[in-house]
Specification:
about 200 residues, 7 strands, seven-stranded mixed β-sheet, 5 helices, Rossmann fold, globular, about 30% helix
Length: about 200
């Protein structure tokens, strides 16, 4: 699979605009500023396939990217405080609408900042994925920011912080060093080959 061939398809600001699912989809979810756009760009060897911003809440739409026979779906970040209540509500209904719809959603990469305990929203999201029986993998972003001892400490604490931690696949990831890229690509390839 040539990851360089991923291309941006389209964005939707309302759930009602999203057409029916016609092929396998892999979604990326996580709180605002967790590094979703950086991760997507790193996986597809691009600088600006997904727009990266220092301002949290930049992705306010559901963005579809095409990669061979599958769609990669970038969901809006959740949990960002500095947007209006109406905007938060719109994001929430976009994310929930997408995840609850009858789509060919094969996997969600749920991003969590490795440096900190999962937020209440992260835990809510993971519980939602478990309850909805949506397969997911937790990607721990910004792994390069932690020293070896800090990493070991955070991984140990995550066993109590993440629901069903012992049954979850966890991938440490860094957009800086490329750690975790091959593992994430391998998972995407397996799903694409299964189509």
């Amino acid at each position: 699979m040539n990851f360089n061939n991923a291309k941006f398809m389209t964005s939707y600001g309302k759930f009602s605009q999203i057409p029916k699912s016609e092929r396998s989809e892999i979604a990326f979810a996580g709180r605002s500023n967790v590094g979703k756009s950086s991760l997507i760009n790193k996986i597809f060897n691009r600088k600006s396939l997904a727009r990266v911003s220092a301002t949290p809440g930049k992705t306010a739409t559901v963005n579809f990217f095409e990669l061979e026979n599958i769609y990669i779906v970038d969901l809006p970040g959740y949990g960002y405080a500095k947007v209006s209540k109406a905007e938060k509500q719109r994001w929430s209904s976009l994310i929930e609408g997408y995840l609850q719809a009858d789509r060919q959603l094969d996997l969600v990469f749920q991003l969590v900042d490795f440096r900190h305990p999962p937020t209440a929203d992260d835990v809510l999201m993971i519980n939602f994925l478990i309850d909805s029986e949506i397969p997911f993998v937790v990607v721990l972003t910004k792994a390069d920011k932690l020293k070896k001892t800090q990493r070991a400490e955070r991984l140990e604490k995550l066993q109590n912080e993440l629901p069903c931690a012992d049954q979850i696949t966890v991938i440490p990831f860094s957009a800086e060093t490329g750690e975790g890229v091959e593992e994430i690509r391998r998972i995407i390839e397996e799903i694409a080959e299964g189509q």
